[in-house]
Amino acid sequence: MARSRKKAPARGRSGSGGGGRAQSRKATPAPEVEVVEEEKGLGMDDGIAIVTAIILLVAFLMVDRGRGMFGEGMFFK
User: Fold this and answer.
1) 61 — phi, psi (to 5°)?
2) Residue by residue, what is the 3-state secondary structure of 22-68?
3) Which among 7, 34, 5 has a CA at the least distance from the CA of 18?
4) What per-residue confidence (pLDDT) applies to 1?
């Protein structure tokens, strides 16, 4: 017959003697974090959005002026 193996003791259970947690339960101190304030004012993303809006408005007005030469413009006739 085959021999049976002994089971290893369960770990982490109280009273098993299997070497549960050996570390203390004291909380480790949190690492220091440096707080950095953001710059005030407009950033690169804001500038790109504003310039794009201005260019689109100017393009619309130029097309309308071109159509206005033929009497079809909304603002220029």
Assistant:
1) -65, -35
2) CCCCCCCCCCCCCCCCCCCCCCHHHHHHHHHHHHHHHHHHHHHHHHH
3) 7
4) 63
The SS3 call for residue 2 is coil
pTM of this prediction exceeds 0.85: no
Mean pLDDT of the region 44-56: 96
pLDDT tens, residue by residue, 64-73: 999 999 999 9
Contact 76, 65 (CB under 8 A): yes
Q: How far apart are alpha carbons 66 and 55 in whole angstroms?
A: 16
Say how far apart CA 20 and CA 23 lie, in whole Å. Answer: 9
Distance in angstroms (rounded) separating the CA atoms of residues 28 and 31: 9
